[in-house]
Amino acid sequence: MSDLPKCPKCGSAYTYEDRGMFVCPECAHEWSKEGIAEAADEGLVVKDAHGSLLQDGDSVTVIKDLKVKGSSSVVKVGTKVKNIRLVEGDHNIDCKIDGIGPMKLKSEFVKKA
């Protein structure tokens, strides 16, 4: 078993080292050894569409109409979401939207309120 880190983007265990950089063959993500130390110090870092850091308990505003998968509902532009929770993964915001219910959002479609 290798002691190389898993890919921070997709979680793949099939990473390899190339000229001081770690590379993921599945998603083509590259990161440095220093990036691992910084990520370990900072914990989970999530930024909104404008680059502002998000934290648990923040309020955000949706910046694009979002279709709800498996439903005919749409989350409209300008919908304010309160008390978000940050989680690992592709959809890194866990929240509850009034009128729709619990939902996961991508941070690239929200801005800090």
TrEMBL record:
Q: Which Pfam families match?
A: YjdM, Zn_Ribbon_YjdM
Q: Which residues form the Protein YjdM N-terminal domain?
A: 4-32
Q: Where is the Protein YjdM C-terminal domain?
A: 46-113
The cross-references to InterPro entries, in alphabetical order and at most eight, read:
YjdM, YjdM_C, YjdM_N
Q: What SUPFAM superfamilies does this protein's entry cite?
A: Prokaryotic SH3-related domain (SSF82057), Zinc beta-ribbon (SSF57783)
Regarding protein family, the annotation reads: Belongs to the YjdM family.
Report the protein name in the record: Protein YjdM
The species is: Sulfuricaulis limicola
